[in-house]
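Example is below:
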Amino acid sequence: MMIRVALDVEGVQAFVTIADFQSFTKAAEALGTTQGAISVKLKRLEERLGHKLIERTPRLVRLSAQGAVFLNAARDFIAAHDRAMTSLSSERRRFRLGIAAHVAGPEVPTLLARLNERDPALTIEVRLENSRSLLDAFDNGELDAVIVRQEDDRRNGEDLGPEHFGWFAAPGFNQRSGEPLRLAALAPGCGVRDIATRALNGAGIAWVEVFVGGGAAVVAAVSAGLAVAPFSCRLAPADVIEVGQLFGLPELPSSRIMLHSTLSDQRSREALRTLAAAYREHRHAPARGAALLDLQRTV
């Protein structure tokens, strides 16, 4: 005889969000609650199911074997619940979101897909450009929210955390003595490029750009061992290493990731909060991402 267990929606949502972010802190921020509250919800769910779902140490949060088995079913459960709730309203909503290309991480498409699955009535239109262009579009009312690098005007916004930069190259990159630094950088107007070239000029280091273009071209040039490039430490390709100290390059100043929004309806703000939580930093050292994204598309 099968024993049926009634699942608590909030408990399952807490479990799925912790699994997505691999962090109790970020999960709490995404759900608009506290670490203590989601810990209690997770514990009650585990007691109801009779299985440990999340393994937690001071340095690591990961799924248990039972949690990995339960995760897809839990996602389906939450998606079905949210679809049922949104079906009571025929109102379709959309918001226009700008994300600076140099801060967009590999987690963004996955989060957008899950938000769309949970709330089909909400359409998020995504625009990727440099921070300055996105802020101008936001000021002109063309975008409802932007996640950008802090600009010199220091305008008020929600601080999502620091953005660290470094100099990266392939392990086999050879910088010949006495020759200008071979630099791969994004197109003129890119904030990261400006930070890097100002730092080199200030340190009196000669440089020459051997690759200029989109993120994918720069990644390819650096991975092939043809040049050094300034990257966000979160988004540097996995096959390169930080070489600033090795080559005596100047330290690149950190920036801040900022959120600006005019959204007012609760469901849209909840979706934006989930995205914003992915950018918050709660580690002592910056994380390494998989690749720069080149997502010139609307989701």
Remarks:
- The longest helix spans residues 65-86.
- The chain has three domains: 9-86, 93-163+255-277, 165-242.
- The chain is about 35% helix and 20% strand.
- The two ends are 45 Å apart (CA to CA).
